[in-house]
Every structure is written in C-alpha cells, then in structure tokens.
Amino acid sequence: MWAVCSLASLSLISSIVACSAVITERPSFPRSTSAAGTFPSDRVFDYQLGGGYEPADGVGGVARDSTDSADPDRYSLCYVNGFQSQPAERESWLAEPDLVLFGGDGGPVIDENWPDELILDASSDQLRARIAARIGESITHCAEAGFDAVEIDNLDSYTRSEGRLTQDDAIALARKYAVIAHTAGLLIGQKNAVELGTRGRDEVGFDFAVAEECHRYDECGEYTEVYGAAMIDIEYTDNLRGSFAEVCDDAHTPFSTILRDRDLVAADHAGHVFEACAP
C-alpha cells in the first residue's frame, strides 16, 4: 500500500510539512557525481518544466527545462524538445525551412495540441543529421550545466505528421541523440511513445523512460516490461482515472509516480499541484 503526499499552492507551507512527514521516511539521496551507470529508480522525482523551485523534502530527483538550472542537490533530468520546435525558436527553424515538415496545404505541419510548435522533418538521414547537430547543442548544454540525464520529447511526432514521417524516421533521429548524450556523459530517456516496445531500448539506446499518464491509459506495464523500474510517470489533475490514491494503489504504478497540474506551474503560482506516491 502506497501513501499519497501532496503540495498545493494555496497552502504551500503547511502542505510541505505534511508532505515531509511521509516522504522523508525514504533514505536520503545524494546527488550523483557521474551520469555513468543506471538510472536511479529508488527516488521520487518532481517534474518542474514550468519553472524550477525548491522541491519538498524527500524528493530525490528533479526534471527541468534545458534553459533552467540543474538542481545541485538532486539527480537532475534535462528536458529537450527533439522532434518539434520550441515556441521561442519557431522563427529560427523557419529560417531553415527544409528542416521543417510542410503539409499538403503548403504550410508547416504543427502539433494541434501545441500549435506554436512546428514538427521537424526527419524524413532523410541528411535532414536528421542537421537537426541532430542543432538539437545536440541543447543536449551538450545540459551536460555542461550539471544535469545527469536528458529526456527527448515528442518522439511520437510522426503520429502527427499527416503520414509524412514514420516510426523508423523517429528511431533513426533518436539514435543520433543517444550518441550525443552518451558521449557527453548523460543518460537518455524515452519520452512517451509506448508503441515503440523494445525498439527504444534496443535500437536507440534509451536508458530509462518518462511516461505521461501511463496509468490513465493503462500503459504502465508496457513500459516496465522494457525498462523495469527505471521510469517516471506523471499523471495530471485534469485527466485522472480514479483518485490519485487509487493510482498509487495500483500494482502496475511505477515507483516514481507523481501528480501535477497540466501547466506544470512553479510552486508559488496559483494552480500548482504536486503529489507523490510514497511506499
């Protein structure tokens, strides 16, 4: 039976106290001094892509955007958007239009859920090499900034490509990212795309997985069959299957499963939610 620990922005200080009483029963987690080795599957992660903040006591790992700073006291996971453009970089990608996927209407193909993100054209090895060279700068920056590992988002962009990209294209580009990450001393994680099965681990070289809503869509077991305990799951408040207590009680729920608000806002912002399953 797992307990649930929560933080909410409206009662942040009292929530931290309540949270600490649960999570601090875990052993302390010193920060890894090297990215070599296996992904730490024995700690709770906080997912802070909306902005970094001091995590609750007992949180042993933190995921932040590549433009943010690594947490010097915790295992640090660096977010990189490897298959779509970041909103602030839209125009710079359009300045190299052959690297952007264009659709039948003559316009760039976008992610309908994130319409300010352009899908990158990974349809040939020449294009993949140029994309990897550019995204690789962010990956190596993660290493230089003190992160221990990197997660590459939008691996499944081929499913939004109007049939112009394939899973093989995504695998081939991801493999280039894995080489860059491992050369820089970072572990690299598969972000979503459960349909890859073992291909991400065996053909790309992913070391762990980061899943969003694997409990909601009954996919957690498919990830753990490939990566074992080396994974993180993030569930969201607006799309839970049952209560979060029920999520934590599910035998298929990974050790590091957390509940976050959809916008992943920082702890001092209205709407912030963080809860963690704890043994």
From TrEMBL:
Residues 45-266 form the Glycoside-hydrolase family GH114 TIM-barrel domain. Keywords: Signal. InterPro entries: Aldolase_TIM (IPR013785), GH (IPR017853), GH114_TIM-barrel (IPR004352). Residues 1-20 form the signal peptide. Pfam families: Glyco_hydro_114. PANTHER family: ALPHA-1,4 POLYGALACTOSAMINIDASE, PUTATIVE (AFU_ORTHOLOGUE AFUA_3G07890)-RELATED, ALPHA-GALACTOSIDASE. This is Glycoside-hydrolase family GH114 TIM-barrel domain-containing protein.
